[in-house]
Amino acid sequence: MIVDHLVYGTPDLRVGIDRIEQLVGVRATAGGQHPGGGTRNALIALGPTAYLEIVGPDPDQPAPAEPRTFGVDDVTAPRLVTWAANNGDLDRLVADAKRSGIALGAVSTGSRRTPAGALLAWRYTSPRVVVADGVVPFFIDWGTTTHPAGDAAQGAKLVDFRAEHPEPSRVRGMLAQLGLDLAVAPGPRPALIATIDGPRGRVELR
Q: How far apart (Å, rounded) are the C-alpha atoms in residues 205 and 158?
């Protein structure tokens, strides 16, 4: 399993940043705006090619015509809402998944400017297509873009990642079809659980 990033949705970006700093002991680096999407983010590296993305509404952008990605409009308290896995052949992945009955959505491009002015560009399956309540990830390919973890706040490390779901067998089967080995235990509601080492010790983030 290749975890590219975990998505921590929050109704207010500063609240999400403060919450993670209290838990982990690392202050997230400002990421940038998602033009037209109505969101912006902040990042903490979890390894050389993995990071935590804290994402919330951007008060400097007008409200978008469509709901904000990751269900941010409906998030009432900061929590892990989904995750992204890295894949270098998205078109083939989507076609294979479709034959297995898993709709990942169309492959499209995205971009944003960092606060320093660098342009990050990527291809990804639509994060608006939510599969298994976010336990099944969307997929991303950074191509030649430098991975964002390199410029994100340092000091934290992802040591374990698992999930819970009311239908664990079904979800495990979908993940296996996509080549992902994620532990999914029975739970009353869908949940992603990340164990992170940081300056405040080992913490569990949901």
A: 10
**Is the predicted pLDDT of residue 35 greater than 90, yes or no?**
no
Distance of CA 136 to CAs 4, 150, 205, Å? 13, 25, 18
Where b means 16+ CB within 10 Å and e means fewer, 86-111 reads: bbeebeebbeebeeeebebbebeeee
119 pLDDT above the threshold of 80: yes
The distance from CA 92 to its chain's CA centroid, rounded to whole angstroms, is 21
For 97, left (φ over 0), alpha (ψ -120 to 50), or beta? Answer: alpha
Q: Model-level pTM?
A: 0.95
Q: Which residues of 33-50 are buried (b: 16+ CB within 10 A; e: fewer)?
A: bbeebbbbbbbbbbeebb
Residue type, 127: P
